[in-house]
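Sequence in, structure out. First:
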Amino acid sequence: MKKTARFSIILVLAFLWQHCTDDPAPARPGTIRFALRPTVAASQGRMATSLPDGASLYVSIRREGGDDVYTLEPVRLLKLGEEYISEPLALPGGNYELTDFLVADAAGDAVYAAPKEASELAPWVDDPLPLAFTVSNNGIAQVDVEVLPTDVYQPAQFGYVTFTVEVMLVPRFRLAVFRAGDSSAEFARVYAYLLSEGDTLLQDYLPAAINDIEFSGSLAATYTLVLMKESYKTYMRTFVLADLLAELNGTPLQVTLEDALTFTASSRSPYFGFTMQTGRETTPFVIHWGDGTEEVLPPTTSGGETYLPQHTYAQPGQYHVSVAGDLAAVEYLSFTDTQSDRYSLRALPGLRSFSMANTTGADSVDLSHNPVLESLDVAYSDIRYFDIRNNPLIRWMSLEGNADFPVPVLDQIILDIHDHAFEQQIFNGEINLSAGPGQGIIGPPSPYPMDRLGHMGELSWTIYQ
């Protein structure tokens, strides 16, 4: 007769964000909570049993056919009558597999374990690990896990190398960072700083998973957490560690990143500045300048507004800058006469004019998310690589002064702008391909693209070369 303890695990996905608008809300991460009701097989049926005082659950979960999300993650248990309720775990919607399942006492010694497939004890349970389950945005998934006591068996008989689990007596805090995916929230890899009184306690990339943020410091001290990722608003939070731990109550700190205009500013003069113009009323914009300084730009209250944000850095360096807010209203953006790099224009779907004239640093720019772009100026810049296949409305472009522009890239740009102009019937456009005063055309283009340039005259385009 099998002597097993069966745990029914109810995976409850609860939305933590509420919106009061008619617009469809972006996918947000949920939380999963385990509900356990332990019973032991007996000759006359199943009888309720109890877990040791201070018992915790340790689980490993991975994406179906993919990477690990949790690895022997400690999950605290609270007894409610004959049932045990776990602390919530952050997990986006998707398909997953439960790969490890241990119940340990307060000392970290495993008292129950779920056998794995192909192990000696696998035949003792109906469904050994791994167990597949699906988490949906608005649903409940149920997984039944059978466990066996570990007191008379060895880990290898369950399919484990060891039952040893790490008991963290004073865990700092855990962090889960998400970004909106196509249909649900996804874990995001970020660059993180943890600062305290001018000292940098943490400075590293964090993987797309639940991360333990551990550092030596006082519970009463004040810390600042900074999270940065290209295309997303910089996240900053200042907290007293004891207060944060009390607030989280064992759950991870959950951060959902917000879309933003991002770039790297190189401080080589007293200040760094750029120009941004909107075409309608907006909410305020928030700029994180990359040195811990946050600036709020006032909202646009009329048909449009021109912003000239400038910032002075204390010392030269490379600074990750993010601009968040009503970015769909931004129609004009210029970094003329700056030293900057790593532009992400993904959050600017309404951008009509973009200038990087006389800039140094960046050799490429991604314009694939700017479908209404009409004007592009990269004259006398380091830009050598860009693609306008997704920019069918361009009617003005300057590559003047870029004498060493790669010919294959130039050829494709000419063919694309030619095809777009005829497909969209765009008249009176301009292209400046001059290498400089008296220096002829950049490239020069291959014969067929040069022939296409000649055809542009049919639409009254002006070609400077």
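Second:
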Amino acid sequence: MRVGIIGAGAMGRAMARRAALAGAVVLLADRGAGHAAGRAHRVAREAVAGTPGVVEAVTPRAALRPGLVILALDRADSLEFLRRHRRTLTGKVLVEVTVPRAEPRGTQMRELMAAVPGARWVRACAAGDAESIYRGLIDGHPVDVFVAADDDPAKIRVIELVDRSGLRALDAGRLDRAGVLDELTSLGREISHRLATPEGWAIKLLPSW
């Protein structure tokens, strides 16, 4: 499987690591050139260590070639990026993984979808922060990832990738649940901030199996 990832920050690093652990060939790009391109190269070297996959730092245009593209940018940056590359992204599986920082959260997801209405949209919401996703475990349990989509084949494709990566995918239903998932992770981040948890955080659905 080939996976494109746009964004080489904390979440992009975590997604690249997970996809490489699933054995994927990952094309990782940051938004710009210069310092951003250098960061993508550093993140690629770190994310691929000890995995069966491949992580290559590439240009944003090259990262859009796979049929599955993960958006790991802030939502405002994602929206700008999507509008610029709308034609290229039409028909691809687009996976939104970030947590919005401003209200209204559900509306923001709808804005992304409206920017590329011809894409096969999936909301993959890891119930934890980027560090816990990168490590894969929280208190010895795999981090849960809630996956919502109206396109069932696209959803299954993402669920299989998540499960192969060592995390636990949970079918969260249709895309109208995106706002609920945004609120879930926003709450987890707020509680973690209040408790000052240096080791990262995750919300776990029990029982585990």
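Remark: Strands lie at 2-6, 25-29, 54-57, 68-71, 93-96, 120-126, 137-138, 141-142, 144-149, 168-171.
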